[in-house]
Write a structure and sequence with these properties.
Number of domains: 2
Distance between the termini: 15 Å
Order of helices and strands: HHEHEHEHEEHEHHEHEEEHHE
Strand order of the largest sheet: 2-1-3-10-4-11
Helix content: 40-55%
Shape: elongated
Low-confidence stretches: 1-20
CATH topology of the largest domain: D-Maltodextrin-Binding Protein, domain 2
Strand content: 15-25%
CATH superfamily of the largest domain: Periplasmic binding protein-like II
Largest sheet: 6 strands, mixed
Structural class: alpha/beta
Length: about 250
């Protein structure tokens, strides 16, 4: 990691001067959890440099198809475990993985439904016990939500009324009335029709989901891709990440 950072710091970025070079076209592969953060920061990079960035939203099957066929791509964004696995398979450049963002957990209800008070840890605990049904995803946010409930000592009481979704934003299931309260990453809850975002889970018990970025082995524009990675982890990215309620990696 130190070697990789030293390469980036040596001048591969030079965003201010990059706009004067021939524009490149980059492709970033990402899943639902990191899509909004990657999208907004990529837009900032385009504006700063003149390079074009296509952010491709990938589900498991479509991602596997592109990886297995060595489809053109320059950067991958995903959870640290997934990044490690793909690096071991040779799909990502060893040593290029860089922490990118943290997505905290929030909750919401069907549009127009009563909004629970979750302003304190005790309020949150009481709201979970009072809920008729609670929905999580099967990914990082669902795993972390379950761990939060266990830490609060209420996992057994919630077991019979907890529902795991089959995929897609939890907010969409809440909007359809599949369960009363949905918990997921805050950035995935934005802009879902029929869903009201209530609040972030109290900071004292929240367990944000981390995401990293790495250089794809098939990239034919690795120098520019490295520039994008540095931009994604620079101070310039912080206000762009905030647009979708996520934080830079610490």
């Amino acid at each position: 990691m130190k070697h990789w950072k030293s390469i980036l710091a040596a001048g591969v970025m030079a965003v201010a001067g990059a706009a004067n070079t021939q524009a490149a076209e980059l492709i970033v592969l990402t899943g639902m959890g990191s899509y909004s953060g990657v999208r907004d920061v990529a837009a900032g990079f385009e504006k700063a440099t003149g390079h074009k960035v296509t952010v491709s939203f990938e589900t498991g099957p479509s991602l596997n198809q592109k990886l297995n066929s060595n489809a053109p791509a320059d950067i991958f964004a995903g959870g640290p475990e997934q990044v490690t696995e793909l690096t071991q398979k040779g799909k990502l450049v060893a040593g290029s993985a860089t922490p990118f963002m943290l997505a905290g957990l929030g909750l919401g209800v069907k549009a127009g439904a009563p909004r629970p008070n979750v302003s304190t840890v005790e309020d949150f605990k009481a709201a979970m016990l009072a809920a008729k049904t609670i929905g999580y995803s099967r990914g990082c946010s669902g795993t972390h939500a379950a761990e939060i409930m266990a830490k609060l000592g209420i996992a057994d009481q919630l077991k019979s009324k907890t529902v795991l979704t089959g995929g897609g934003p939890v907010a969409e299931y809440v909007a359809k009335g599949d369960f009363e309260i949905g918990i997921q990453q805050t950035n995935v809850m934005l802009g879902i029709p029929g869903f009201d975002y209530v609040a972030h889970i109290p900071t004292a018990i929240d367990r944000p989901c981390p995401f990293s970025v790495a250089l794809m082995s098939v990239s034919k524009q690795q120098d520019v891709a490295k520039q994008l990675i540095q931009y994604m982890t620079s101070p310039a990215a912080v206000p762009l990440l905030a647009l979708t309620r996520v934080d830079p990696a610490k």
